[in-house]
Each structure stands twice: as structure tokens, then as C-alpha cells.
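Problem 12. The chain below contains 178 residues. Write out its predicted structure in C-alpha cell notation.
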Amino acid sequence: MIVCVGASASGKTELAKELYKTYGYKKCVTTTTRDLRQNEEDGIDYHFLSKSDFLTLVDKDAFFEVTMYNQHLYGIQKKDVFNHGMIIVDPSGANKLIDQLKNDVFVVFVSASEQTRRNRMIARGDEEEVIEKRIIQDRDIFIEENLSRIDLSIINEDKKIEDLAKIVNQAYKKHLKS
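Solution.
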């Protein structure tokens, strides 16, 4: 399974979409208590749950990990993790998957400059206040030192997303053979 980690607007979601489309990877859908954004679908982008339903699943030990980000709960349900899947998580989630699934996970760290990320958030219509809060918050969270292992680190600045997806796919295939 590919575990993709990167700050807000680093391009991890676009990279994942390209890997799904071109190489046939399947999305491991994570669960959240945040509201649906425009153009998102429940069960496709996330499993959107109320806080009480989410906490009921926590009590039933249904998650590999749970984290709080931007005042919302996010979690990786055990039922949603599978081989040749791909999941996007924060460093804490990646570390918990590494601890539990060992070499069955391939960790890809995606980075981009703060200015590039800011421009992307503006382009997708995020509010200025939200953008600045995420930029500042992500400085402490999405750094390589917060991950117990990184199998591939890519910078998403000036390469085409198709080229980055090809790099990830080739590296993951090598990982599977080792």
C-alpha cells in the first residue's frame, strides 16, 4: 500500500488521482468529521461521519489510527486498508501504519514551497484566513523528521503530475520486489 504524506496543497491528492487513473491504484478512503467540500462525495473522497458516529467506531476499535486536524477528527478504518491501495495521511497516521503494517506500506513524502502551496489554495478558493492558518500549522507537522520512515521523497513544484506519478509507480514496484 502507498502511504502519501504532504502538507495542504502540496499536490498529494492530484498525485493520487493520477496514480488511480494511469496505474490502477485504488483509494483507501479515510474517515472524517469535517463537512463535505464542494465537489466531494461521501464514500469517494472520505467517509463523512458525525462526531458521535466517529467516536462509536473508535470505541469498537475500528481504526488503525485517529488524529485531530483543524478541529476535525480523521481516521483510517481497518476495513478500508488493502494491498495495492493508496491512502493520504498526516505523519502521525503514516507512523502508526508503519508500526502496524511494517514493510507492507510504502511512504511517499510530497513537498512544495509555501508560496506554491499558498497559490494553489487561493486557486481552489480557500479563504485567506484558512490559508494562513494551514501554512503556519503545517510548518510543524509536515516535516520529514516527523516520519519514522520515508521510502520516496518528491518535490511537486515544476514537474508534471504525470511524471511524478510515474516516479512513484516505478519506486513502489521496486519496493514490492525487495
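Discussion. The chain has a mean pLDDT of 94. Students who got a different answer should revisit the alignment rule from Section 12.3.
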